[in-house]
Specification:
- It is built from eight helices and five strands; from the N terminus they run βαβααβααβααβα.
- By secondary structure, the chain is an alpha/beta fold.
- A five-stranded parallel β-sheet has the order 2-3-1-4-5, sandwiched between helices.
- The relative contact order is 0.20.
- The structure holds adenosine-5'-triphosphate (ATP) and ligand LXEULUCI.
- The site of ligand LXEULUCI has 12 residues, from helix 4.
- Adenosine-5'-triphosphate binds next to helix 1, helix 6 and helix 8.
Length: 190
């Protein structure tokens, strides 16, 4: 089973991914968790740019595609073929949102990615208003980085919300407690 959690920064994706992995492991399932950008060469360059200044929109998109191609071939596809549960903290829907907010066409980004990247069985969009997301980022001890500017995050949120309506997409209100959000995710999967 292939599960992806998406949403703007601070919505609780990393936290919920770990709780969900624990749930599957309690059921005896073998679970692989991962994130994008990865810690590979392209992902590391992208993470560095969050602090030092964003790359050009063209280079940023190119690096995310290169990072994901390596991620699909080296981890995602082999894990799925081995029958493991794969849970991702971000995937190509973030590319649609974040690089879409920089002027690229989200539909074209989706087509480019789905040419090589498997479509997940379940996509959970964790939704939160930008102000609350920012306060959670601050509560985590971070300050907003180059990807987390307020106006950009609002555009990203709108693109994520445009994905709802497809059968594999589930909108999860992330304003509740950690437990409420995880309960809502598990209810879909149960
Ligand atoms: N439902 C919640 N209620 C209150 N605080 C939360 C909730 N979920 C997560 N948090 C807290 O908000 C902060 C951000 O959570 P987390 O890092 O999981 O978000 P994220 O979506 O992965 O963020 P990013 O995309 O920036 O990595 C953390 O300090 C976390 O403990
Ligand atoms: C996969 C992906 C991610 N991003 C951005 C979104 C985040 O602000 C940063 C780092 O992610 P994290 O969740 O804070 O670890 O990368 C992006 O712009 N495009 C993408 O495809």
């Amino acid at each position: 089973m292939f599960i992806v959690l998406e949403g703007i920064d601070g919505t609780g994706k990393s936290t919920q991914c770990q709780l969900l992995a624990d749930w599957f492991r309690e059921q005896g399932r073998e679970v692989v968790t991962s994130r994008e950008p990865t810690d590979g060469p392209w992902g590391s360059k992208l993470r560095q740019s969050a602090a030092t200044g964003r790359l050009s929109p063209e280079d940023e998109l190119d690096y995310f595609l290169k990072d994901r191609s390596q991620h699909v071939e080296e981890l995602i596809k082999p894990s799925l073929e081995a029958g493991k549960v794969v849970i991702l903290d971000r995937y190509y829907f973030s590319t649609m949102a974040y690089q879409g907010s920089r002027g690229f066409d989200p539909t074209e980004i989706r087509q480019k990615n789905e040419a090589f990247a498997p479509i997940p069985d379940h996509l959970f969009i964790l939704d939160l208003d930008v102000d609350t997301a920012h306060s959670r980022i601050g509560g985590r001890g971070d300050s907003a980085n180059e990807f987390e500017k307020r106006d950009s995050l609002q555009k990203c949120r709108d693109i994520f919300l445009s994905l709802t309506g497809e059968p594999f997409v589930h909108l999860i209100d992330s304003h509740g407690t950690l437990e409420d959000v995880q309960k809502a995710i598990r209810a879909v999967l149960a």
